[in-house]
Design brief:
Length: 166
């Protein structure tokens, strides 16, 4: 009888874990929130003529607050696969992702046909908010975070990463 109860308890626990596992699976959002990463991160691309703050914010969250595959992150960066080391390290150390950190993209913004700027505000528990004026470049119809912005972020945060992906 104990074994049957134990099996039933394990089965019930496993069934209860399925929604949680699906919520944490790549391409899904673990916590529904206003600034959540896109639901299908593998298809994420900012292709509008003028990117919105919400789109830029979602892209930054995809880069630094999700365990997205390298190729997905590379697709969001002007430096491509050479530049993935930066968001990977920021994600790994957890600077700007819940539960101890956060980020939000705000204005002021500037816009030119193939260049857009906004401010990335990133904070972590116990530290002041870091503000980086970031630039996005429109490459092949998609807005990508500029390499020069990654270099500015590396310097601002003090990461031990050479800026050699421009």
């Amino acid at each position: 009888m104990f074994r049957r109860f134990r099996r039933a308890a394990v089965a019930a626990a496993a069934t209860a874990m399925v929604p949680m596992a699906l919520a944490l699976a790549p391409g899904a959002v673990a916590e529904p929130e206003v600034h959540a990463a896109p639901v299908n991160i593998e298809d994420f691309a900012i292709t509008s003529e003028v990117p919105t703050l919400a789109e830029l914010d979602a892209q930054i969250r995809l880069l630094v607050a999700t365990p997205a595959p390298d190729w997905v992150k590379a697709n969001q960066l002007e430096g491509g696969s050479r530049a993935v080391v930066v968001p990977k390290m920021i994600y790994r150390v957890g600077f700007f992702r819940p539960p101890k950190g956060s980020s939000v993209v705000t204005g002021p913004e500037t816009h030119e046909p193939d260049r857009h700027t906004a401010v990335i505000n990133a904070s972590r528990q116990g530290s002041p908010t870091v503000q980086v004026v970031a630039e996005w470049r429109r490459i092949d119809g998609q807005w990508k975070l500029a390499s020069k912005s990654l270099c500015n972020g590396i310097k601002t945060i003090g990461l031990p990463i050479p800026c050699n992906f421009e």
